[in-house]
Amino acid sequence: MPEGELSAKTETFFEMCPEARSKRYLLHLGRIHHKQGCDLLINAFVKYAAQDPDLYLVMAGPDQQNWRGELEEPVISAGLTDRILWPGLVRGDQKWGAFAACEVFILPSHQENLGLAVAEALACGKPALLSNPGQHRP
Fold first, then answer.
1. What is the C-alpha to C-alpha distance for residues 86 and 63, in angstroms, rounded to an integer?
2. Contact 43/75 with Cβ under 8 angstroms?
3. Which of 7, 44, 49, 71 lies 20 to 30 angstroms, CA to CA, from 24?
4. Cβ(97)–Cβ(70) below 8 Å
5. CA 79 to chain centre
6. In angstroms, rounded to a whole number, what is the distance separating the alpha carbons of residues 58 and 21?
C-alpha cells in the first residue's frame, strides 16, 4: 500500500496529466512495448469506445520502442485521439494517483505474466484485468 492519503496522490497525477481530471478512465501503466500487448488494449478500446463515450484510456509509461505512432493509427482512424492520453512515465505519488483515480487497471500481454503493477492496483482497491498470453499471438 502507498503511504499517506490517496487523494493527495491523485492530485499529483492530475497535475501531471490534467486531461484525465474528472474523467472515467482505464489505466495501462507499464512500458509501451510489444511484449506488453498495448496493441491488444488499443484495439479493444477502439472497438468498445463508441459504446461508452465518457470512457477514456490512459497509456502511462515510457515508449522505449517508439511504438506510439503505430499504436495511434487505429485511434486516428476511429476519431478517438482525444480519448487516449499518453502521460509518459509515472512514478511515486503520480503512479499511486493514477491507480487511485482509474476505473480499472488493464495489463494485456503477449508473453508476460502477472506483474507488480497488478498488485499495486489491487492495493489501491482497483480491479485488474489481465490477458492470457497463451491465448493470442502478436
1. 10
2. no
3. 71
4. no
5. 19
6. 11
- Set of cell numbers at residue 46: 477502439
Handedness of CA 47, 108, 96, 84 (dihedral sign): negative
CA distances 104 to 63, 66, 70, 100, 128, Å, are 21, 25, 24, 10, 6
- HEC letters along the chain: CCCCCHHHHHHHHHHHCHHHCCCEEEEEECCCCHHHCHHHHHHHHHHHHHHCCCEEEEEECCCCCCCHHHHHHHHHHCCCHHHEEEEECCCHHHHHHHHHHCCEEEECCCCCCCCHHHHHHHHCCCCEEECCHHHCCC
Q: What are phi and psi of 24, to 5 degrees?
A: -85, 125
At residue 55's C-alpha, the angle toward residues 57 and 1, to 5°, is: 60
Q: What is the per-residue pLDDT across 51-72, written as a single tens digit (0 to 9) for each?
A: 999 999 999 999 989 999 999 9
- Domains of the chain (ranges; CATH) run 6-133 (3.40.50.2000)
Residue 138 confidence class, pLDDT cut points 50, 70, 90: very low
> Which of these, 114, 138, 118, lies nearest to 41 by C-alpha position?
138
